[in-house]
Each structure stands twice: as C-alpha cells, then as structure tokens.
Amino acid sequence: MNDPAVRHIKVAPSILSADLLNLGGQVRQVVDAGADLLHLDIMDGHFVPNLTFGPALAKALKQFGIPLDIHLMVSNPDWGIEAFAPYADYLTVHAEATPHLDRMLRLIREKGCKSGVSLNPSTSPEVLKYVMENVDLVLVMAVNPGWGGQCFIPAMLPKIEEVRRLVSDSGLPVEISVDGGISASNARAVVDRGASILVAGSYIFSSEDIPSAIQALRRCTITDC
Ligand code: DX5
Ligand code: ZN
How far is residue 128 from each of residues 34, 121, 133, 140, measured CA to CA in Å? Predict the structure, then answer.
C-alpha cells in the first residue's frame, strides 16, 4: 500500500506563486497538464502575517472544473468555512487556529466538503488521535505558513511517518498531504513516508515549463531521482 508505484499520487499546484497578472492562463496550464487539485491558500493577516484571496476568486476558479483544495490559514475559521465551503472540495483548517477543532471539522462535512486539518511544523500529530473520525485529509506543513518559496524542513519527514502511523492505526481512509518546499528533489522522500498529495507552489510556477515540472513531481514518486 505504501509503494508509490501502486498508489496514485495527487499533485496540487498552489497558485500563491502563480503570476497573478496571468492567473487564468497559469491555471489553464496546470489543469491541462493533469493536476489533480488546485490548492488555494487563504491568509487573514492574523493567523499568518500575510493576506491573500477571498471567496470571489474561489468562485471564479470553479469554471476550470478542477477540484479546489482550500487551505484556510485564518484564526477562528468558522467564518472562513461559511465563506469558502460553497466552492471547496477539500476545506482545511489549522489545528492551532481554533479551540474547537472537532466542531470545525464536523461543520466542514456538514457543508458537504471533505474536511482537512493542517499542522504547523512545531505542532505534534497527537491531536489527530482525538479527531480522526471526522478527518478526510491531514495537511502536514513542511514550512512555517505564510509565504511560498521557503525551504522544506527536513524534520518533517519523520513527522509524516508519524502521521501515517496514526492514520493506519485508525483504519480510516485519510489522505496525507504535504505542503511547503516540495520539489522534484524531495517528492520521493515525502511520498515514501506516506504522503498521497503533494502541494507545490514555487517549484511549479517558477518553472520555465509548467507541464514538465508537474510531470517531474509525478516521475519522482515512482523512480529514484
Ligand atoms: C504556505 C502555503 C503553501 C505555499 C507553498 O503558507 O500554505 O501552500 O503556497 O509554496 P511552496 O511550494 O513554494 O513552498
Ligand atoms: Zn497551502
């Protein structure tokens, strides 16, 4: 089951690093290149010191027909769930952003979305044990959230394994996604530890050849590179 050659690894380009003046064209390229999900980073200037997109963009992106993987980096995410659920396939909140994680996860499912919980690099995966039955996706942050283009934190590799063990012990079909500093040089290591979704921003969008960058991520999950 953990052999990447027999698992379908999903690639989720993060448009945070896209050329915003040519956003439609860039999204079209990743969709045509076979991206599985489109990752949309929502920042509120409070949970993280940056601001990004609102629900109007999520609504507009629906026209591409690709599932939206919406990553809420916002404090007390009740409002974000209400605002983005109509457009989200996966909707992810941070464990650190709310004292009511269990309620947030249930609310996401009530809204008809798949529920995600994200963990900052310094957050222990322990919290997952108590909410797993309401989780469809765990988003392991491999950088401190707030910006694209940061370096992958190597200590997140054993953490991905820990998350995979907790998911296996639960017997539930929970996806493990890894976000931050993903490139062709670490994709294989991340997938070998248990990731089933790779989120990548700057690696894909700063490439001269976006379809090749997506293919390189996929290739690295099935061959050594
Ligand atoms: C960081 C965001 C990421 C970001 C990843 O806070 O959650 O999704 O776009 O960008 P790269 O792949 O450049 O690290
Ligand atoms: Zn993200």
Answer: 31, 14, 9, 12
Write down the catalytic residue from 36, 41, 44, 136. 41
Active site includes 179? yes
State how far the Cα of 105 lies from the Cα of 93, in Å rounded to an integer. Answer: 8
- For residue range 44-86, what is the model confidence (pLDDT) as tens digits? 999 999 999 999 999 999 999 999 999 999 999 999 999 999 9
pTM for this model (two decimals): 0.97
What is the spatial order of strands in the sheet that 197-200 belongs to? 10-13, 197-200, 175-179, 137-141, 114-119, 90-94, 68-73, 38-43
Confidence band of 1 (pLDDT split at 50, 70, 90): very low
Catalytic pick among 36, 44, 136, 179: 179
Q: Is 19 marked active-site?
A: no
Domains in the chain, CATH or no CATH each: 4-207 (3.20.20.70)
